[in-house]
Amino acid sequence: MRIVRPKSIRRLILVGFALVAVPLVAALLFATFSVDRLVAQGQHALFEMVRATQSNQLLAETITDMERSARQYLVVGEPALLGVYREKHGQFKDIVRRLSQINLSPLQRERLVRLQQTEQEISGVLETVGHDAPEAAAAVERFAELAKVAQKMLIDNRRLVEREVERLDAAGIRVQRIMLALALALVPAALVMAGFFAWLVARPIRQLDQAIRRLGDGDFSRPAFILGPRDLEQLGERLDWMRTRLLEVEQEKARFLRHISHELKTPLTAVRECAELLGEEVVGSLNSQQREIAAILRDNSLQLQKLIEDLLDFNLASSRMSSLQTGRLALHELIESVLADHRVAILARQLVPEVALQPVMMEADADKLRTLVDNLLSNAIKFSPDGGRLGVSLDLEDGQAVIRVEDAGPGIPESERARVFDAFYQGQSAANSHVRGTGLGLSIAREYAQAHGGTIEVASPGRAGACLQVRLPLQTERRNVA
Fold first, then answer.
1. What is the mean pLDDT of residues 364-368?
2. Residue 452 has what DSSP assignment?
3. Contact between 58 and 96 (Cβ < 8 Å)
4. Of the candidates 253, 284, 314, which is a domain's last residue?
5. Does residue 5 contact residue 230 with C-beta atoms inside 8 Å?
6. What is the CATH number of the domain that holds 60?
7. Which DSSP state fits 480?
8. Who has the most CB within 10 Å: 66, 254, 344, 366?
């Protein structure tokens, strides 16, 4: 069953952004709502406490005024003073009514009821008896009881304010803990989700990059498979189509090189043999000029044959179809044999060989390593000045065979070191000199080194000239070249 994927990378990014942002926005809205509710509760509680405190203070003051008016009425007996008392009594009733509407504690509500009952009893006595009656004096004395109860209500109100503040603090701490828990849960989850979607976005791009790099390196064996949004998958399909076309072109090129090399080699062999027959005077004696011409024909036919053999070797190395025929060999003896093959060229250029070969036994393809070493030596001899130094060394380093070939030529500039192993590439020094070639020798050497699981690179020679270094494992698996 195919997993449903977004049709474009833009849609994937938008989906990822939404999945990351929605929980964070929800947490932010929850935090805003909780804080607003907490602020509203605090404001309401503060308003109620202020109302309760003001009413209790006003109640205490009203009781004091009522007591004062009642005592003055008992002493003087003026009806006007009784009217003042009645006015304060009305104020007392209004304050009690406002207090009863406030969210009081059960104890405060009980005391408020007792205040109201006591005050009604006092007022009833003062309204029914005369100012000089003993009952009136006894009733007035009960105002002290009212004052004590009012004072207790003030104290209770302060305690209620403290409890309300504690409750609000507890609610604030609870909201803070909830917000902290949400942050601890959502922020890592959002980061994980963001990382997951970043991986989903980066994975197809990375696959595209790897496919393009493989195509650039000439590896057409693996298809360009892209797993991701549909638009990138379609791009991968086009890359795979390009890989198929390049593979066809590569095969056509290899077939052309193979055919043209064989077609050139057959008549060239006849030309070379005829030149040798002329030079050996098999068909008759030659004068000095004729022998010189025959020698020129022979030398150029040999050079042309070497170029054709390089083309055949390059075609074989780049075809990725030839297998390594590995066997036990003495690498130092193979290098000595190749040096012996080049002895005439070394003597002709009056080069000074500096050979240091450590005995090395390894599993490898002798023919391909011979071609590799031959190409390195040919390249060094080609660029060495007459009478120059030619260094060849073989060492064991970290379980690998290390071959170094140095010359005293113009060297390889830093800007060209990454390209000297490309097929048909010739550096600036070769282009400006009389030295000519196909530019395939080092490319073939790289293919054969990689076929053995090794590497080849331009090393720092320490002296004037160039140094090419090859590292080869002592055990080579049987596998296709490259």
1. 87
2. T
3. no
4. 314
5. yes
6. 1.20.120.1730
7. B
8. 66
186/191 Cα distance (integer angstroms): 8
Q: Give, as one character, the DSSP assignment of residue 458.
A: E
Residue 52 has pLDDT above 50, yes or no: yes
Handedness of CA 53, 58, 61, 66 (dihedral sign): negative
With bands split at pLDDT 50, 70 and 90, how would you rate the model's confidence at 402?
Answer: very high
Residue 355 CB contacts under 8 Å (≥ 6 apart), including other chains: 339, 391, 392, 393
- Please tell me whether residue 330 adopts helix, strand or coil conformation: strand
- Alpha carbons within 13 A on the beta-carbon side of 275: 17
* Closest listed residue to residue 426, CA positions, set 415, 418, 437, 413: 437
DSSP category for residue 323: B
- Which DSSP symbol is given to 319? T
Cβ-proximal residues to 298 (8 Å cutoff; 6+ apart), any chain: 272, 275, 276, 279
Is the CB of residue 362 less than 8 Å from the CB of residue 475? Answer: yes
Contact call for residues 473 and 451 (beta carbons, < 8 A): no
Helix segments in 354-472, DSSP class H: 366-383, 428-431, 441-451
Among residues 292, 314, 336, the one where a domain terminates is: 314
H or E segment and range at residue 471: strand 467-473
Q: For residue 27, is pLDDT > 70?
A: yes
As a whole number of angstroms, the distance between CA 158 and CA 50 comes to: 10
Q: What percent of the chain has pLDDT over 90?
A: 2
Do 134 and 274 lie in one domain? The reply is no
The stretches of 280-399 forming alpha helices (DSSP H) are 288-318, 331-341, 343-348, 366-383
178: number of CA atoms within 13 Å, CB side?
Answer: 14
| 286 pLDDT higher than 80 | no
CA 17/CA 190 separation, integer angstroms: 10
Domain that holds residue 105: 9-194
> What residues pair up with 403 in beta bridges, in sequence order?
394, 470
Structure token digits, residue 300: 């150029």
Compute the distance between CA of residue 482 and CA of residue 475 in angstroms, rounded to an integer: 16
| Whether residue 389 has pLDDT greater than 70 | yes
pLDDT at position 229, please? Answer: 75
Dist. CA 395–CA 45, nearest whole Å: 90
- Between CA 372 and CA 401 the distance in angstroms is 14
Overall domain count for the chain: 3
